[in-house]
Amino acid sequence: MAAALRGVFPSTLQESVQNSKILVVGAGGIGCEILKNLVLSGFPDIEIIDLDTIDLSNLNRQFLFHREHVGKSKAQVARESALQFNPDVRIQAYHDSIMATEYGVNFFKKFDIVLNALDNRAARNHVNRMCLHAEVPLIESGTAGYNGQVELIKKGLTQCYECTPKAKQKTFPGCTIRNTPSEPIHCIVWAKHLFNQLFGESVEDEDISPDMADPEANETGEGEEKANDKKGQPKSIPETETGNVVRVNTRQWAKDSNYDAATLFNKFFYDDIKYLLSMSNLWKERKAPTPLKWDNVLVNQDNGEKEVTADASKEPTRQYHKVWSLAECANVFADCVKKLSTGFLKLGEGETLVWDKDDQPAMDFVAACANIRAYIFEIGRKSRFEVKSMAGNIIPAIATTNAITAGVVVLQTFKALQGELENCKSVYMRLRQNPRQQLLVPEKFLTAPNPNCIVCSSEPAVHIRIDTKRMRIKDFRDEVLIKTLNMVNPDVVEPNKGIVVISSEEGETESNEEKLMSEMGIVDGVILKCDDFFQNYELDVIVIHFDSERDEALFEVASESNQIKQKGEETPLKESNGEKKSQTNEEYDEAAGPSTSKKSRVTEVVEDDDDLCLIEDDEDEATVEDKVVAATDKLTVSVKETTPIHRSNKRKPSSSFNDDITEIKDSDDDEEGPTESKRQRRISSKDVIEVINID
């Protein structure tokens, strides 16, 4: 290959390439292109890791995969395909999560450079920390549509992936989803919650259908329709000998009903809607929904469409760009319930299905349920393609963008191997040329590390506001340390008293899990010493107590160094209702889909399709922001109309970057890319600022 031919590369570069060992993390759209470039460039020793399997939807852009590879390991197939370009290369493939304990700091130390081609923030955070502690250069990359970014991360030289704040993942208020939807996205989120309530890992706060033994829910439907009784609905509320109501949750009720489609349909779209109608205050200023029964689903009420029958469409699920009729939605609903319930019943105890946008029964279930609910609330319905884009927070990726970005990654690799790290400036790819006629726009300077970063600073510390009277130790571990601060197996000690609060050793502190933080003496002003041996990471958590309101979150990161922002801190923008994935993709930062169920684990991240983007809308009286966040490569494009702003002093201005890009930063699954870089220029209030966020 190129490195083996004299005269192609300078002798020093040729020697560096031939003696190098490279790790590629992720074998999706960018990962395939990177692997191909490395092989053709003559890199002799490559390792690649990815937990995902090949889906049919990957084939239009991940060119190392073909139809016969569907369902197989991405990493393994990528290896086999790449070897056809150059059989002399040594490629070792791992079908595994990069966050597995087998891949610790010592694993990373054996590489000369690490190339990230990931699709989710948790995995990116993890690789960032590993490379920092192993002191191995990391080249981060991301794409979204026609936009891309490549950035070097090197300890002590550049900012790390976590030096800059990431936008907090947003959710819709539960009452809007359950009771008063007004937009298609509300119905789509409701449908995803319904999937989890029936087949997935159910979260009590996200349950959207009342239990069958709910006295109020049953009371409203009592005597409404005898047809319900015939379909298996209970005629009365069961009680114990003491008169207490026997509650049967919706999942168990559906199972007891043998997942009869008509029975489920009548509950979710008739009985539950009647229950909502009983809350008259909701409809004083809103148009009330119209309950819909299974037997009436074929009536000519479908927004002026011609009457349809159950045989109106034999294959509606293959008509991706068509808005299904109500009858087609009902048929798809019945078919998906049958398929999903069959898979669900085969699982072991405690196992659940995982919703995945690329799993057809799961995706069709959400599309059908969302459109039926939209019909009931007189909300515009969407095609399956549109629902998938919103449900998975995705837009199709551009194969050429991945190819160009991967090319820049390898060019940066050449510089890094020769020790020219100061020349590895961040590079941004744009859809349109800037005033200097550039599509690939390099930065002029490397961005220095944030001295207050909670990961790469000399004494990492973070202030967290916590309601210590309501938060339990288990929730502190899962929600704060693992989900928010991205630890894997944390240990926590209260140093003043020498108390081990949380231990990564199984069972050692199990008795503490249900205790409130205040019960263990963790109150305002306490400093907790947190350590993750696996990540070789230590962090001081400074507790700031506050009394939360009833529906308020029990904690928020409120660092004095402002390296983490949540709930719109330090920004005048008002957050509107919006939701992102993790994905990412949304993830599902997760992989095989409902048809191949698995347990959902906080510490496990599956590298999902990195060719997709998260979409999020934010709106204020004076500010409109449209964000596109990459699901695998986590890049966000935002457009803002705002008042004049002054040049940021976070980064020195670059003459080569004088165009309409104002800010390039990380966002989100989701969420999902390279570290935030900011650049701003003075503009008039009439200007429109284009903001590209890469995550």
TrEMBL record:
<feature type="binding site">
    <location>
        <position position="453"/>
    </location>
    <ligand>
        <name>Zn(2+)</name>
    </ligand>
</feature>
<feature type="compositionally biased region" description="Basic and acidic residues">
    <location>
        <begin position="223"/>
        <end position="232"/>
    </location>
</feature>
<comment type="pathway">
    <text>Protein modification; protein sumoylation.</text>
</comment>
<feature type="binding site">
    <location>
        <begin position="58"/>
        <end position="61"/>
    </location>
    <ligand>
        <name>ATP</name>
    </ligand>
</feature>
<feature type="region of interest" description="Disordered">
    <location>
        <begin position="560"/>
        <end position="604"/>
    </location>
</feature>
<dbReference type="GO" id="GO:0005524">
    <property type="term" value="F:ATP binding"/>
</dbReference>
<feature type="binding site">
    <location>
        <position position="163"/>
    </location>
    <ligand>
        <name>Zn(2+)</name>
    </ligand>
</feature>
<comment type="subunit">
    <text>Heterodimer.</text>
</comment>
<dbReference type="Pfam" id="PF14732">
    <property type="entry name" value="UAE_UbL"/>
</dbReference>
<dbReference type="GO" id="GO:0016740">
    <property type="term" value="F:transferase activity"/>
</dbReference>
<dbReference type="InterPro" id="IPR045886">
    <property type="entry name" value="ThiF/MoeB/HesA"/>
</dbReference>
<protein>
    <recommendedName>
        <fullName>SUMO-activating enzyme subunit</fullName>
    </recommendedName>
</protein>
<dbReference type="InterPro" id="IPR033127">
    <property type="entry name" value="UBQ-activ_enz_E1_Cys_AS"/>
</dbReference>
<dbReference type="GO" id="GO:0005737">
    <property type="term" value="C:cytoplasm"/>
</dbReference>
<dbReference type="InterPro" id="IPR030661">
    <property type="entry name" value="Uba2"/>
</dbReference>
<dbReference type="GO" id="GO:0016925">
    <property type="term" value="P:protein sumoylation"/>
</dbReference>
<feature type="region of interest" description="Disordered">
    <location>
        <begin position="641"/>
        <end position="686"/>
    </location>
</feature>
<feature type="binding site">
    <location>
        <position position="456"/>
    </location>
    <ligand>
        <name>Zn(2+)</name>
    </ligand>
</feature>
<feature type="binding site">
    <location>
        <begin position="119"/>
        <end position="124"/>
    </location>
    <ligand>
        <name>ATP</name>
    </ligand>
</feature>
<keyword id="KW-0862">Zinc</keyword>
<feature type="binding site">
    <location>
        <position position="50"/>
    </location>
    <ligand>
        <name>ATP</name>
    </ligand>
</feature>
<keyword id="KW-0547">Nucleotide-binding</keyword>
<dbReference type="InterPro" id="IPR028077">
    <property type="entry name" value="UAE_UbL_dom"/>
</dbReference>
<feature type="domain" description="THIF-type NAD/FAD binding fold">
    <location>
        <begin position="8"/>
        <end position="453"/>
    </location>
</feature>
<feature type="domain" description="Ubiquitin/SUMO-activating enzyme ubiquitin-like">
    <location>
        <begin position="465"/>
        <end position="549"/>
    </location>
</feature>
<feature type="binding site">
    <location>
        <position position="160"/>
    </location>
    <ligand>
        <name>Zn(2+)</name>
    </ligand>
</feature>
<feature type="active site" description="Glycyl thioester intermediate">
    <location>
        <position position="175"/>
    </location>
</feature>
<comment type="similarity">
    <text>Belongs to the ubiquitin-activating E1 family.</text>
</comment>
<feature type="compositionally biased region" description="Acidic residues">
    <location>
        <begin position="205"/>
        <end position="222"/>
    </location>
</feature>
<dbReference type="GO" id="GO:0031510">
    <property type="term" value="C:SUMO activating enzyme complex"/>
</dbReference>
<keyword id="KW-0833">Ubl conjugation pathway</keyword>
<dbReference type="InterPro" id="IPR000594">
    <property type="entry name" value="ThiF_NAD_FAD-bd"/>
</dbReference>
<dbReference type="GO" id="GO:0046872">
    <property type="term" value="F:metal ion binding"/>
</dbReference>
<dbReference type="Pfam" id="PF10585">
    <property type="entry name" value="UBA_E1_SCCH"/>
</dbReference>
<keyword id="KW-0067">ATP-binding</keyword>
<dbReference type="InterPro" id="IPR042449">
    <property type="entry name" value="Ub-E1_IAD_1"/>
</dbReference>
<feature type="region of interest" description="Disordered">
    <location>
        <begin position="205"/>
        <end position="244"/>
    </location>
</feature>
<keyword id="KW-0539">Nucleus</keyword>
<keyword id="KW-0808">Transferase</keyword>
<dbReference type="InterPro" id="IPR023318">
    <property type="entry name" value="Ub_act_enz_dom_a_sf"/>
</dbReference>
<feature type="binding site">
    <location>
        <begin position="97"/>
        <end position="98"/>
    </location>
    <ligand>
        <name>ATP</name>
    </ligand>
</feature>
<feature type="compositionally biased region" description="Basic and acidic residues">
    <location>
        <begin position="566"/>
        <end position="584"/>
    </location>
</feature>
